[in-house]
Amino acid sequence: MISLENVTLTYPDGERTVVAVDNATLAVPAGSVTAITGPSGSGKSSLLAVAAGLIKPTSGRAMIDGVDAAALSREETTRLRREKIGIVFQSPSLVPSLTALEQLEVMRRLGGPRRERAGARGRAAELLDAVGLAGSEHKRPAQLSGGQRQRVNIARALMNEPRVLIVDEPTSALDQRRGAAIIELILAMTAEFGTSTLLVTHDQSHLPMADAVERMVDGVLTRVEEAA
Amino acid sequence: MFVALRDLRHARGRFILIGSVVALITLLVGFLGGLTQGLANANISSLTSLSLDRFVFEQPGDGQQLSFSDSTVTREQASTWSTARGVDAAEPIGIATAKATATGGSQTTAALFGVRHSLEGMAGDQTLPAGPGQVVLSQPAADKLDATTGARVHIAGASYRVAAVDGSAQYSHMPVIWMPLADWQSVASAQSAGAAPYATVLAVTLGDGADTAAIDHAAATESTGLIPALLAIDGFRSEIGSLLMMMALLFGISALVIGAFFTVWTLQRLGDIAVLKALGSTTGALVRDGLGQALIVLVVGVGLGIGITAGVGALISGAVPFVVSQLTTLVPAVAMIALGLAGAGFALRSVTRVDPLTALNGQNA
């Protein structure tokens, strides 16, 4: 699971200090989705960056599967991201030269031990099948639709069997119908793979589908809703 | 190399372009290298074929440099050297230029090398004239004179029997004719208004304990190793210097071209690199990927360029002074690859600076 404990993130902006995240605390149990919503510039992306191990908080702890990401070295954080965290980017951010299958395979070739490569192709094919892309394995990003690219993005995030799934506004470039399908897919993957999923979304229609909803305003996180 | 290989396949047009540029630069470097070696051989092969430690010249005047064409060593100087402690051998060599004419009428301007038969210890496999009135023609001299063993060759009014045709020695772009030192002294005497010179230089082999500076002082000579001595051949320094400078510039250009290509290529991929880093890729893996990509481009491009150089060089080497050897193919190839990798490595520095956090800002696939 992932838990953020009293996380504060500040950064200098000229002579003043901006508080991007203000003493935020939340916990996302395994197999559940916590949605974070809020206006633009409220600090959602900063919180997500802390949760993804991409930036260290100014204070507080970011516990990923029992490890405080804030206390790790850069190399250890890189390894943590590779092994424990899956990231679904806002736009798919696929490598243009790789096929859908290879976008997933590359996750086992990011600098980890060679033994990690075993069975990569088989798992990649299974995941593409799971996200509804069977038959599109050998298509490159330019040959896929926006929705299909986002599905590859999701499957890629699951490739290394992460404990935590960080999802950054995955439907912002999609229409309502495709957006809903992507959210349903994320919920299904969370349930199937038992990940702790942190989902940032602007779309209010997605909130009821989450297990918990947090609202962020001016860096302050407030619990809105708890799943039944 | 997972992404690198797929990038090569996906952007094959761009990589074929840069590979072609590398091949063309390599071709140019290869041709220059072959030509440099060929011209150098035509200049110095007669000297480099000798196994010696030092050449001994007449001490040049103030402000003057060593020169084969200006040097004259005396019998006394030769004696001082040959009897000095630690000197194994000091063989006089006379060098002069003269027109040689074969009985059939063919003519050529040749470099006459007057030597004693005792030079054979330094000359290796080179056949030397055994007695007076004999000459040994190098193959280029024989070709130009259309002469074979047993023919007669006329030099400075005297007739000599061709005792053998052997070797490919050349000196200052002229074919070499080996003749006895005494005969050479006669030719040199006829050419000069003054007294007959003993020899031009001494070829010296050294044992233990030789103090060359002291011997030079005692004999009023100046001795030097083989490489510095080569620069005493008129025109050799400027000729080879110009060609080597062109080669050095081409090496530099190739490194810059490769570096520039990979700089642009890497800048175009910064978004992908940020994503891969965010997903957990190590910087080392990404740099290895980029360097591997550069290595493939370089090996293919350089291989193609050197292959064409070797093929064309083999065809034209009979017509122009061109040498296809490891020195003119493998050495420039390795240098091109090493410098190209250095250029690519410099370009890939930006990989280390990419912040994976930027991946969250959103790029489009």
Describe the structure.
- The complex is a heterodimer of chains A (228) and B (365).
- By secondary structure, chain A is α/β, with parallel strands linked by helices.
- Chain A has helices at 44-51, 74-84, 100-105, 120-130, 146-158, 176-193; strands at 2-13, 16-28, 32-37, 59-64, 67-68, 85-88, 164-168, 196-200, 212-217, 220-226.
- In chain A, 29% of the residues lie in helices and 29% in strands.
- Chain A has a 6-stranded mixed sheet with strand order 6-7-8-3-9-10.
- In chain A, α4 (120-130) packs across α5.
- Chain A is globular and about 50 Å long.
- The mean pLDDT of chain A is 88.
- With 365 residues, chain B is α+β, with helices and mostly antiparallel strands.
- Chain B has 2 domains: 2-43 and 237-364, no CATH class; 54-224, no CATH class.
- A 6-stranded mixed beta barrel of chain B has the order 2-3-8-4-6-5, surrounded by 4 helices.
- In chain B, α2 (12-48) packs across α11 (283-316).
- Chain B is elongated and about 90 Å long.
- The mean pLDDT of chain B is 89.
| Category from helices, strands and their pairing of chain A | alpha/beta
Total of domains of chain B: 2
Name the strands of the widest sheet of chain B in spatial order.
2-3-8-4-6-5
Q: Fraction of residues of chain B in helices?
A: 40-55%
In terms of DSSP E residues, the strand content of chain B is: 15-25%
What is the H-and-E element order of chain A? EEEHEEHEHHHEHEEE
Could you give a short account of the major beta sheet of chain A? 6 strands, mixed
Major sheet summary line of chain B:
6 strands, mixed, barrel
Distance between the termini of chain A: 20 Å
Report Rg of chain B.
29 Å
